[in-house]
Queue: 2 jobs
Job 1
Amino acid sequence: MRCINCGAVYTPNFRLYRCPKCGGLLEIISPIYWAPSGRGVWRYGTMLPVRQGVTLGEGGTPLVESQLGRGIYIKFEGANPTGSFKDRGMALGITVAKNSGADKVVVASTGNTAASAAAYAARAGMTCYVVLPRGNVARGKLMQAALHGAEIVTIDGFFDRALEYVLTYGTKYAYPLNSFNPWRLEGQKTIAFEIFEELGCPDYVVVPVGNAGNISAIWKGFRELHQLGLCRRLPKMVGVQAEGAAPIAKAWQLGLEEPLFLDNPHTVATAIKIGKPINWRKAVAAVQQSDGFFTQVTDGEILKAQRLLAARDGIGAEPAGAASIAALLKLNLSGTVVAVVTGHALKDPDAVEISTREIRNSEELVHMLEK
Ligand SMILES: Cc1ncc(COP(=O)(O)O)c(C=O)c1O
Ligand SMILES: [Zn+2]
């Protein structure tokens, strides 16, 4: 393991999440080689620090050619077992937790991490504690955490506060599966491997950014393909934040070195309603190294993109998942562009306005159909 801050190197330790010397984020360095076999996340076992483990059949998600523009592909992560990309990380995270001897896991969450951790913990026979910001979690996600039997704790405040609780107290008593845990992020880099196998290396990869773990993980995946001589020309990484929760994108646009952290993030995309992204250093490095950029989109643009993606491409995204589409529609990127749609529409039924037409008899239906 290596600290991304001071460069200190440590022998792999499932219980090490931050650099003991400087508190920096850690990155996994492990011997890897390319020998995909089987399906899903574990297809890439030789590229992961653990070769096999817990699975619900995560990964292997559709890469759909979009009808929204030429050269646009949607990587639909809503098709994972619990409906978001988090399942890739949890397959690894829960495996590592189990291998480290833990019987309890804990996460702070805007919802999807909780749903995923709850399902994978159930599968592995572990107890799962989730700490959620009250009133800031979409209904589908809360339902999933409850259904899979997680212990649900809610707090006043936003995600950042929930994460602080986990960082300060949770790690002592349970295995933490937030994205500061570098082992979990290893699972998420398989998004890059799947894109590569189907499409080669695209020109751009557009990713919604909240706590900034996923974009970092995907970039690590591409970097490793490059190191192995497989991906010659690396994609530019584009990080998308919601306007009311854009600490990194706003700082990027102003040319600042550090994010403009927020105490009161706001956006309809609750999954990325985060004011202090813990992985910001990794994400900024990913975007800089790839010659990409960060951008922000408004709630209006997100909801419009969500509708358009559903109506034109038949893909149902939750608002945060559609943030990448909202950015795409504004940016006019040329070449091959992959937009990662991170979560399923069913996660957040309240984000969609539903209009229906009442009829009183079958004639009225016929009348309508004839038009
Ligand atoms: C649907 C969805 N999209 C995007 C994100 C942001 O991912 P990250 O926190 O890794 O930046 C999340 C995180 O909760 C999410 O649930
Ligand atoms: Zn360090």
Note: The pocket of zinc ion (ligand 2) is lined by residues 3, 5-6, 8, 19, 21-22, 24 (CB under 6 Å).
Job 2
Amino acid sequence: MSKMADVNTNLGTTLKVTVTGGGPVGLSFALLLESLMGSKVAIKVYDGRWTQEGARIVWKGEEQENARRQQVVTIQSRQYLRLPKEVRDRVFQEGCYSEMWPKGPDSIRGYGPRNVRIAHFEDKLLELANEKKESIQLIPLRFDPEDRRDEIKSQHALVICEGAQSYTRDYFAEKFGSADKSMYSLEGDHVQDVILGLRVKSDLPDPMAVLLTVTQNRFLLNSLRGDGFLNMRLTDEEVEEVFGIDLKSKKFRDCIQSSPCVMEHTEKPGEFKSTTYSTLFLPAMLREGSPLWTRIQGGLKLFQIKEENLSAVTAFRLAMVHRPRFTAQLYPPTQKTPGTFGFLLGDAANAIHFWPGRGLNSGIASAISLARCLKLNWRDKGFREADFTRHEGLMAMLQYRHKSRAWRTMVTTDSNGNPCAIKNKIKQGIVESENGKFNKDSDIDELMSRLSQIRSRLKQRISGLPSDNTLRQHLRELDPQTLRTLVVSGSWDTFSVGGEEVEVDLLFSDPDSVGGEEVDVDLLFSDPDLPVPPERKQAGKVLAGLTARILVGVALAVGLYYLIPTLGGELSDSLHNIIDELLVQVTL
Ligand SMILES: Cc1cc2nc3c(=O)[nH]c(=O)nc-3n(C[C@H](O)[C@H](O)[C@H](O)COP(=O)(O)OP(=O)(O)OC[C@H]3O[C@@H](n4cnc5c(N)ncnc54)[C@H](O)[C@@H]3O)c2cc1C
């Protein structure tokens, strides 16, 4: 009998885990757990975007209404180096990734952040999961917690990785508690950004694209050697323009807003069509008649993108909430069932504004933490709440770190310290330029001053940064309104968003490191008042005595060294030799 066949009948020995959602986080988690526990775990993964093709599970295609996501995501080395080696080897094949962004506090062991297409990442994870049939069962179905109640009760863990709109998380709302919008609201209004995603091919070299991106908050280019998405933060008024038109019924549809689809460029100039809804992107049809379309063109010019290299348009609606907990006992143990714990991971736990590029990173960190935690606490019978104290702590750390960083990319402060949504600052810039309240030269000067400051900070970490002449020439070609909006949107608040990152190894040691991974000791908080045990006090005294003797020895030796030249001849030489020997011995 295969291990999968007896999953529901054999309590004990095998850890039984169901994962709902086989996106990048669900699959990463399944592969991590499999790599840690091998035959001791039986994992089922459900995803409604999959279908069976022969013996394999594959992604549904567009004909089955599954528009694969095309965005390029940046994964930090703190995360990707902790994925199983076989995952890294498949994902990061030559030509499938690039290193566009500089190293920072989230870069470990000398490795920088890497850009990959999310669809490529998911493809490789699914490919590998297909090869682990002994431990991972892939089920091409949407998971319904009501229909599968008995199945959930038979599992030790239900790991919910269904993304931001998770149905299973909401089904268990009484266990996980209600989300709180208040801390991501301004004057009672939940702050929401709508970002237009423009699939493009940019001709700008990466270093210049990075510089131009971090100098302002209106546009963000993330790409794989120029191919990627140019993201444009919209004002509330611009969102009203983002409509599709159904040419047959002559009706407008807000398809791009309510359930975003990708509108692909057709062969006709200026025509972007949704394959899902058969609608056309209205601003591109109106061209100069649409204020939004002219501003999109400003962004294309900023990143040196020819209009024919804009191949698709989509939109993302982004808002954040605070979640009270990520771990809960869903069903208690009974004589026949082991007791089931539920876990929120990835976007189902913490959906984060993508501007700082940390949603997937936070999701992978949550998967690493839970996989290590389950392995550490598995004792051939059910779990108890205390087993997840550290994992729950880590989830709270991820929420705090990544959402506070992302909030800084949604909201800024005015000169009196009053908070203000960045999209409203952009609106202010548009109004100013429409009223003729701008000075192109001083806007260029302001941007040049930011660019040169950022360039001097980045020059140790990125080579090939552009000169002042190149930058000024480039900015001169932009229209005054684009320049104004760039200026008022402000540059990235790198001081506030930088600093210490969440380190899973602090709570769960790396199983691959021999003798434990070296963790930055500055990150640990030791208790200054902790009583010192007597044997350590004794050792401390011995060490202090030794240090004092060494210091006296070194001082004497150095003093004599400078006196000897006055003695001259052989006496001087032999004293030199003795002192050299003494110095070697005390310093080793
Ligand atoms: C434009 C853009 C750029 C981004 N850039 C970055 C970046 O640079 N760096 C970064 O770290 N992050 C980035 N992100 C965020 C990143 O894409 C997400 O954090 C990541 O996709 C979350 O993965 P997930 O597996 O948790 O959820 P998802 O990717 O949403 O996957 C959820 C999966 O669950 C399945 N599912 C849902 N409900 C069910 C159900 N009931 N039953 C079965 N299956 C179900 C879905 O089909 C899907 O496959 C970006 C996001 C966007 C939109």
Note: Residues 191-318 form one domain.
